[in-house]
UniProtKB/TrEMBL annotation:
Gene3D superfamilies: Vaccinia Virus protein VP39. One of its GO terms (molecular function) is protein-L-isoaspartate (D-aspartate) O-methyltransferase activity. NCBIfam families: methyltran_FxLD. Its EC number is 2.1.1.77. It is an enzyme of class 2 (transferase). This is Protein-L-isoaspartate O-methyltransferase. GO terms for cellular component: cytoplasm. Keywords: Cytoplasm, Methyltransferase, S-adenosyl-L-methionine, Transferase. One of its GO terms (biological process) is methylation. Pfam families: PCMT. It comes from Pseudonocardia hierapolitana. It is found in: Cytoplasm. Belongs to the methyltransferase superfamily. L-isoaspartyl/D-aspartyl protein methyltransferase family.
Length: 402
């Protein structure tokens, strides 16, 4: 497993490699065949009402995040999302006996199981706590590093206040429909700056900082419309009647693969176009044209939606592993105008060098802190912070303000 993580460039530093080689992952997944424990896959370990509520994360994602976290011997670390305890054990190995790892999980039963796993792996340097990580863990503060291994919609003030000056907060943060692993460094001005952004897909927080799903189901069509929380909520009945009125299908000049749709072009569109959203197949049979949902394993695509029209990216050829030909499908009387905007956005994204998640630079400004002067950021307003997103290669005039 570690050889493969190295070859793929996921493990880069000697410290992260040594930790992965030393801590036996299978001891954190008792009952699973050893070969399966070392496959590069997430392993769900708890389900609630059919939905995974805890998992041992995919080793390559863990490696990416441990590299982003940049742990040093002697660091004091808080992990939110103890799960099996495996990541806490890896971190404990890196920070060594001079450091300290505190790991909290909202689920007492999981914490009890993690304690058994850590004991069987003979890891003694982890302090496990059953608590809601929304509030951090004040007794151990301040921390050099705080890491969430669970997805969050916002940056809780407690996480920022429990960091040392210059400390780093690493979390899977929801950014307009994409989830991005962002490494945020706390500056003396109270602003958190991030140079390292990666795509990710984590289970989301339960407890005080949980957010209801923003999917809105169009029941009669078997699809859900997901729009960014800080964009105006569309009238669902109007969108439903528009979707029942398919019109033109126009070839797009830019080939796209599934990754491009979600965190490449999809993220670009969500950051630059008011009205951007995602259409997700909520049921296997949808009442929409067949070619609307070929992208990704669960089915879904990116779209511009308004009350008089929808324009969505659809596959124009047989689905394949790499980028393929796509078209823009228009619905309703306003679909043609939205189709024009969607095609223009595709051109702009291609002209900017097809940026992906890693190409965006994010700055998180906690509520009450003054925003730094930046040339032309896209601004995402959350309850506890504003997220400023800049694309280093994009000129300000090429971006429509959201
Ligand atoms: C992807 S798992 C973490 C994997 C873990 N780091 C490991 O190495 O196995 C996410 C965990 O976050 C926990 N969680 C969810 N909401 C939480 C909250 N508010 N506070 C603390 N933990 C939470 C879940 O119970 C789950 O165990």
């Amino acid at each position: 497993m570690v050889d493969a993580l190295r070859t793929a460039g996921r493990v880069r530093s000697a410290a992260v490699e040594e930790a992965f080689r030393t801590v036996p992952r299978h001891l954190f997944l008792p009952g699973l065949a050893v070969a399966d424990a070392y496959a590069d896959e997430a392993v769900a370990v708890q389900f609630t009402a059919g939905v995974a509520t805890s998992s041992a994360s995919q080793p390559s994602m863990m490696a990416i995040m441990l590299e982003q976290l940049d742990l040093r011997p002697g660091h004091r670390v808080l992990e939110i999302g103890a799960g099996t305890g495996y990541n806490a054990a890896l971190m404990s190995r890196i920070v060594g006996p001079a450091g300290a790892v505190t790991s909290v999980d909202i689920d007492e039963e999981l914490v009890d199981r993690a304690a058994v796993h850590l004991a069987s792996a003979q890891v003694s340097g982890v302090d496990l706590v059953a608590a809601d990580g929304a509030h951090g863990h004040p007794p151990g503060a301040p921390y050099d590093r705080i890491v969430l291994t669970v997805g969050s919609d916002d940056v809780q003030p407690e996480w920022v206040s429990q960091l040392v000056p210059g400390g780093r907060l690493l979390l899977p943060l929801a950014v307009r429909g994409s989830q991005l692993s962002v490494a945020l460094d706390l500056g003396p001005d109270g602003v958190l700056r991030c140079d390292s952004v990666r795509s990710c897909a984590f289970i989301r927080l339960r407890g005080a900082a949980a957010r209801a799903d923003s999917n809105r189901l169009v029941e009669e069509l078997g699809v859900a419309l997901q729009t960014p929380d800080d964009y105006p909520e569309p009238d669902l009945a109007a969108v439903a009647s528009v979707l029942a009125d398919p019109r033109e299908r126009r070839a797009a000049p830019v080939p796209l693969g599934a990754v491009d749709v979600w965190d490449g072009f999809g993220l670009w569109l969500a950051l630059t176009e008011p009205g951007a959203g995602r259409l997700l197949a909520a049921e296997p049979e949808t009442g929409l044209p067949d070619d609307l949902f070929p992208l990704g394993s669960t089915g879904g695509t990116v779209a511009l939606a308004a009350e008089d029209g929808v324009a969505a990216v659809v596959l124009a050829g047989p689905p394949g592993p790499g980028p393929g030909a796509v078209a823009v499908r228009e619905f309703g009387p306003g679909g043609a105008a939205l189709g024009d905007r969607l095609l223009a956005a595709l051109d702009e994204w291609a002209a900017a060098g097809r940026p992906g998640a890693a190409d965006w630079r994010l700055t998180v400004v906690p509520t009450g802190v003054d925003a730094p002067a930046l040339p032309a950021p896209q601004v995402i307003v959350k309850k506890h912070c504003r997220v400023l997103a800049e694309h280093p290669r994009a000129s300000s005039s090429a971006i429509r303000r959201g």
